[in-house]
Amino acid sequence: MGTPLVRIRLAVMSWFSKLTVRGRTLLVGSAFTVVFVAVGSAVPIPYVKLGPGVTINTLGSYDGSEVFTFTGNDIPASVNENFGEGSHLNMTTVSVTDGISLFGAIALWASGKYTVTPRDEIYPPDKTTDEVKAENARTFLESQSFAQTAALRYLKYPEVAYVQQVGTGSPSDGRLEVQDRILSIDGAAVTDLDSLQQVMEKTTPGQVVTVRVERAGTDGKLAELDEKVTLQGDPEKKTTQGYLGIVTTQRPEAPFQIHNSLETSGIGGPSAGLMFTLGLIDRLTPGDLTGGNFIAGTGTIDIDGTVGPIGGILLKLIAAKDVGASYFLVPAANCEEAVTRIPDGLHLAKVGSLDEAMAAVTAISKGEVPASC
To answer: Three-state secondary structure along 137-163?
Structure first.
């Protein structure tokens, strides 16, 4: 008779052979369906879910702390002004969810509120997840720095000269450091790049000059130091003046320090730059730029005030509308996509620069209609 397992198998085969063709088809189809459902529900696919992310009011607080706080000297009294509950300048984000299943992806796509994209587009195969997150965190911090520079420059804070790069083997190698603020050369004040050039035009190769710089120590405290540098001739022979061998830049300087509570939030990417800039300008100037309106937006910012495009614009429009925004600042380069799906009641404002963004916010505060996409 065989083993119990053999007898069971024979009995099943006998039972299956007695079924009609239709019955066999239904049974096999049902079995495949069960397997398909199990696989489709449980096995991850190489895609990620993108959806509307958090929105944060740059005029308000995050995790119990104000987004922007200030320490130091001559802090404008305006930073202590209270904005109305309706006043918003919200940054917007896109959420990313990894490890979704096939059925989960189909359901998300059908909802119209989420989208799926190949995982490799978010997490390149040559980088680990942690490396991608670290890169996003770096660009987020960089956007905060650019926003601070753009805001202070817009508000006409004085420009100062900094060391951006020190050439290897140059006269300043081992003397000056990146991020040194140049205060003077041989007692002649340096306030910006123009004044630095004017001072250097009076020097000659071989001359030893005293460069006074402001440098941050390992404890973060600033100190003034004098560094002796023996000038060389211009290696490209374009001038006969002395040559320090550094690349310099200038940026606006405030007598106070600006702190951002989102630095450790886990949010990544550069797309909050524009809204950071607008939030800073509002905090550093009297009054309420928004006029009590709920304005959201997105866009990168360069130190010269150029507003750049971002990804996920349609999802960010949804995020803004979900939290109650009435207006959304759209980078000019994203307008073509943004107009394909505008949430009901959300008005778009096209901006390509900080000046245009300020003009749009000013128009909104006056009850006027800003230039749209």
So the answer is: HHHHHHHHHHHHHHHHHHCCCCEEEEE
What is the second-level CATH architecture of the domain 159-252? Roll (2.30)
- Residues forming a β-bridge with 349: 329
Segment 326-367, tens digit of pLDDT: 999 999 999 999 999 999 999 999 999 999 999 999 999 999
Burial of 219 (0-12, 13-18, 19+ CB in 10 A): exposed
- Which helix (H) or strand (E) segment holds residue 172: the answer is none
d(CA 154, CA 167): 31
- Are the C-beta atoms of 295 and 364 separated by less than 8 Å? yes
Q: Give the CA angle between residues 121, 312, 146 to the nearest 5°.
A: 95
Phi-psi region at 139: left, alpha or beta (left = phi > 0; alpha = psi -120 to 50): alpha
Report the alpha-carbon distance of residue 231 to residue 159 in Å, rounded: 25
Residues whose CB falls within 8 Å of the CB of residue 341, separated by 6 or more in sequence, listed in order: 314, 317
- Cβ neighbours of 243 (radius 10 Å): 21
Letter for the amino acid at 311?
A: G
Determine the topology of domain 48-156+256-365 in CATH. Answer: Ribosomal Protein S5; domain 2 (3.30.230)
Considering the entire predicted model, what is its pTM? 0.77
* Tokens describing residue 291: 């006029």
Amino acid letter for position 76: P
